[in-house]
Amino acid sequence: KQGDDYVAWCWDAGDTTVANTDGTIASQVRSNGNFSVVTFTNGSGTVGHGLSSPPKFIVTKTLDQEYTWSCYHISLGKDKYIALNSINPAYDVPGMWGSSEPTNSVFGTTVNVAPDGASMVAYAWAETAGVSSFGEYSGADSPTTLNFGFRPAFFMCKSTNSSPTDWVIKTDI
Length: 173
Known about the structure:
By secondary structure, this protein is mainly β. The chain is 0% helix and 34% strand. The protein has strands spanning 17-20, 27-31, 35-41, 45-48, 55-62, 70-73, 80-83, 91-92, 106-109, 119-126, 154-157, 168-171. The strands form 3 sheets. It has an 8-stranded antiparallel beta sheet with strand order 1-2-3-10-5-6-7-8, with no helix packed on it. The chain has a two-stranded antiparallel ribbon with strand order 4-9. The chain is globular. The mean pLDDT is 92.
């Protein structure tokens, strides 16, 4: 609203959107090989993501109805998700992301991600040396030093096993 301050982060997914039939669910993909924006109609199956390697982090959201921003993270695996719009820890939902982990070409989706037939968007990131890193660490009482192999411009984390905890975002670390 007028008078409020906002921040924004943007990723370049390339210039061209193409049809992708790599999965059992057709999708439209815009990808630079390391980050992609994918649109599809939800169901139980697999969706082509257009990345050059398996995604380590995926955020999905319905386009036409209120629903959770469901996040896949490599350290949580295919049977858990964490909600981007929640202070709760990771949810344990067997088969949440299908029957297998994401591959070089597809990720899984089910009616646990969103209702069957929902119009969806997914943002997917692959790990790229010197550009992006995805992992996990255990919190400690003393300060923790994390080594990414590069100086990140954007860092986001969330506790996966305690509640309530907010997402933490740091920039220009």
